Amino acid sequence: RGQFGLPERGHLYLCPQRLAKFHPAHDELLRRILETDSDGYLVLIRPENRDHVVEKLLRRFRRTLGPLAQRVLFVPPQPGATFRSLLGVGDVLLDLPHYGVSLMAYDALAEDLPIVTLPGRLKVERYGLAFHRKLGLMETVVSSAEEYVALALRVAADREFREHLRRQIRARKHVLFEDMSVVREHERFFEETIAS
Known about the structure:
alpha/beta; 5-stranded parallel beta sheet; 9 helices; 49% helix; 10% strand
């Protein structure tokens, strides 16, 4: 954690998505998580040369989270392997309900990091669900805001439960990274495209 300037103690709720994905309707969930977990920190990525965007989001957080906004921490953008190291020190990754985790889920699951997801109706709200269905691991997929908050808190604070989830991910993630049917489908597509 020290490598990223993060507290050595406390629970780290990672939300390293692009700041444009932070819908205001999500703030209430973040507030409830930080309000309940006095040892919790929300960790976001500070984009380069976008200080005005960060300040705008922080102004909103000061309004919607109040004093809890002090526990929203920013780390600089991290290159590939270092980003994976950041995911490795987190306790849980929060999938944003209004704009899903998308490709970042591959990095998180490669590091055995549990992802709490609340799927919606739109495709951009359902990527997390798709990853968990592929894994056959639905323990961190919830159906309400209340369940989202409760599960995020449990994953972060309950080490035994978190390790159980990590073991489940570790045992199943090969279906994401070693699915040869996907490779064959890409081969077929390119062969047909080149031939036509």
